[in-house]
């Protein structure tokens, strides 16, 4: 899942994928709440699941872990 997030953000933000990793924060990417909502909506459509965040996630790794828990 982390690779999917990295590829998505690399494409959307025009950032080299190798510059993104588990510890990359959304703050460091300058993503605002609208950007985050749009990303989650895209992922929901692609994965066919509901990704309603129950708690704040601040890194790509935390989001990847959250999504993987929804896929189980």
Outline of the structure:
The chain has helices at residues 2-13, 33-47, 60-71.
User: What would you give as the CATH superfamily?
Assistant: ACP-like
Integer average pLDDT: 92
Tally of separate domains: 1
- Radius of gyration, in angstroms, nearest whole number: 11 Å
Number of strands: 0
The proportion of residues forming helix, as a percent range, comes to 40-55%
CATH class value: Mainly Alpha
CATH-assigned fold name: Non-ribosomal Peptide Synthetase Peptidyl Carrier Protein, Chain A
Task: Summarize the structure in words.
- With 72 residues, the protein is an all-alpha fold.
- It has one domain (2-71): Orthogonal Bundle (Non-ribosomal Peptide Synthetase Peptidyl Carrier Protein, Chain A), CATH 1.10.1200.10.
- It has helices at 2-13, 33-47, 60-71.
- It is globular, with a radius of gyration of 11 Å.
- The model has no long low-confidence stretch (mean pLDDT 92).
List keywords for this structure.
72 residues; mainly alpha; Non-ribosomal Peptide Synthetase Peptidyl Carrier Protein, Chain A
In terms of topology, how is this protein built?
Blueprint (H helix, E strand, L loop, with lengths): L1 H12 L19 H15 L12 H12 L1
